[in-house]
């Protein structure tokens, strides 16, 4: 009896803060997993651990804050946020800072700010706003407008150039359209159009280093000390980990720094090397649990905007996971996407948890919506 | 109403539509996760061994460690070739905060040329920052001391010691020891072909000539290695396994420092060679070719000025006169011919001939002159050798014929390499009919046999061949293989090295040995013997034979006048001797280029060598 009471009390406390218990549990487990690996991947760097902890704390706070906002409010703010984001993207092209050969940052005086991060949230939210203001499945012209809403920021970001982010943002918008029930015929048609667009992308939109990445992906051994080095060393790290791994803190590829960017984009290789295939299965299970829980929340949402936004964020999260693991293990070209919630990194972490804040908002405000 | 109903229907349909899409999306998610797992399985389980190997290959580097080269000792244990530490000043750029300031401070302590600094800075740019880079090599003792005292002021600056070959006696042993130098491409290919290249991974040097070359394999030793773990920049993290190198074997020579010094002192500026051997086992006691040169010049790479000076010198110091100097043996081979005469019964101890001062072939009026213009009168084999009568041997030679001479002398080792343990050796020429046909495409004439029987004409020998052939007489038919090395040793064991004697001649009459040895004894002992004056007052009982090799053709009836002809065409002085007479422990050959008569020039030098030999008791322990 007492246990039942306590359980109810705990649930209600979480519900009071609009936190979804299972999702929070999944996220915390993943963060714990990530911190443990980061300790090893950073070369047991305490300063980096502290920085990552602060970042996770800030990101969790942002998530909690956003979770308090009602989905209707989020829906109202979707279009203004989108337009503001577009303005910032234009601004960044005009006055942005150049870092690593790309123009991505806007110096706000007290901090540097990457407008494309805002668009990761704003694009799917705005598309969901537009699509959900009409009945589903969307008509053709709704889809066309939706595609345009994806295409404009995508092209602006691709111009910075940040191909990886632009594709992910486009994907986030397109996921809204997919979840809204866009017909399979149109999906097939769009796929055909994209295929036709690829040569244009290759010839006119991609920079040399991007083309090089793709070539390297197709045959990493062609340049083992140059552009193929990352992927070769990464595959060696993964493969040599075997079933059980070389042991925590014992990965030679990572600890002796043969593996480049081991604490950021290539941290999955560290996991594979040190705790092996079994560790990878644990990680994938955590991801699958979070994705499943989010998709469940989306399907339980009571208005279309909430469903579409939550569904799109969920799939985008999955795409992050898949693209990162895919590139690190040689299934995809190297595009510079961090492993969500594990890789050491700044703004993307906040953006990511902001998205989970939106999903939690969707998951915890539905009763109040259903009441009247 | 209608509008609202439509909306409600829409809502339910929309929910179903979304849920269907959600299921499809989740299916895709699961399929792609399975793809990841399948790929991970391929990498981590199926190809595990492959990637494991490549990972180890990344991390583990094998660092070869060169073995210490074996040392070389003389017969009494004096070091002739050692490994001396040479010091170099090295800097690790990574550990130096202010390179300019460090270089300035260092230049205040020791002399640094602008070239040294410049080449150092060039290397700093080219190499990895944690690599140690030499600023100055071959520091002297003072510099080492100054730097050691100031070490604490310079983090990242070290004085590194490396072993380098050094020959403490300089030019005294050069032609025997040879020297080492940096391994060149051709030698590397040879090592590869011999399957030895792996053992040389850490070695810089290889024996170039002499013993250093002949015993390269023994002296070199076996490479050791360390398996070390390195990071991606190649920096050493830790040593995983260490297999120490096995030093090369030390070699011990029969040579004696005192005897060598005596040889060098008595020869002074005289071009020539002295070689002495224990006839009983072939161990070389003295081995000196004059002029010599300092082998240390070659160890660190000889300058081209120094090298061309050696190469172009009129005295040809690079030639090893003991084994490569091919001289007409002249009268030194008369005892050997006498033995053949006695053995074939061509002469007996009682045979006497009349020497009018010349010899003429039948049906010819060409006079082959004796060195004594007026002749020796009646001579037997004893007198003929003692006084070196040419006419006696002209006649004997003609009776024997070139074929018997050539065969017999070849058995004694003439015209053949002796097989001494250095590779710089000439075989000399033991002429024969076949040789002359092959070499000059001419038949052998009796006129060729006449000078042949006094060791002239085409016959050439090395000083080493002379003592080997003489040892055959002393050993009563057994030929020793001359060898400089008498033992090998490592930390624990010492193994003697003595090639067995080869029986080459069986005599018909045992007493012939004694007769021939007796003739050489009389040469030294009896008044009128060509070597008598040189050995007056010797504390030991010596025997020997002089030789004077004529280099310039002298016209019929003309008198040889040493002053009148070019110095380089003057006679070579030769001497071959042994002692003690009754039980010889040393046989010695002296060859002096353009020095004049053997009795007056070569024999006194042999005397001084033997004096030292017996006074110092060089070989007395055996």
Automatic annotation (TrEMBL), chain A:
Pfam family, one: FTSW_RODA_SPOVE
Membrane topology (UniProt): Multi-pass membrane protein
EC code(s) of this entry: 2.4.99.28
Subcellular location: Cell inner membrane; Membrane
Keyword Transmembrane helix: yes
Superkingdom of origin: Bacteria
Family to which the UniProt record says this protein belongs: Belongs to the SEDS family. MrdB/RodA subfamily.
Entry protein name: Peptidoglycan glycosyltransferase MrdB
Species the sequence originates in: Rheinheimera aquimaris
Encoding gene, per UniProt annotation: rodA
TrEMBL record, chain B:
Bilayer topology term: Single-pass membrane protein
Database matches in InterPro entries: Beta-lactam/transpept, Beta-lactam/transpept-like, PBP_dimer, PBP_dimer_sf, PCN-bd_Tpept, Penicillin-binding_protein_2
Main location: membrane
Transmembrane segments: 21-41
One Pfam family in the UniProt entry: Transpeptidase
Pathway: Cell wall biogenesis; peptidoglycan biosynthesis
E.C. number(s) listed in UniProt: 3.4.16.4
Top-rank lineage group of the source organism: Bacteria
Subcellular location(s) per record: Cell inner membrane; Cell membrane; Membrane
Penicillin-binding protein transpeptidase domain segment(s): 272-610
Residues annotated as catalytic: 331 (acyl-ester intermediate)
Sites where the protein binds Zn(2+): 355, 370, 376, 389
Record key words, sorted: Carboxypeptidase, Cell inner membrane, Cell membrane, Cell shape, Cell wall biogenesis/degradation, Hydrolase, Membrane, Metal-binding, Peptidoglycan synthesis, Protease, Transmembrane, Transmembrane helix, Zinc
Catalysed reactions, semicolon-separated: Preferential cleavage: (Ac)2-L-Lys-D-Ala-|-D-Ala. Also transpeptidation of peptidyl-alanyl moieties that are N-acyl substituents of D-alanine
Enzyme class: hydrolase
Cofactor note: Binds one Zn(2+) ion per subunit.
Domain Penicillin-binding protein dimerisation: start-end pairs: 66-239
SUPFAM superfamilies reported in the protein's UniProt record: beta-lactamase/transpeptidase-like, Penicillin binding protein dimerisation domain
Cofactor entry: Zn(2+)
Family, similarity comment: Belongs to the transpeptidase family. MrdA subfamily.
Role noted for this protein: Catalyzes cross-linking of the peptidoglycan cell wall.
Protein known as: Peptidoglycan D,D-transpeptidase MrdA
Species annotation: Rheinheimera aquimaris
Biological classification of the source: Bacteria, Pseudomonadati, Pseudomonadota, Gammaproteobacteria, Chromatiales
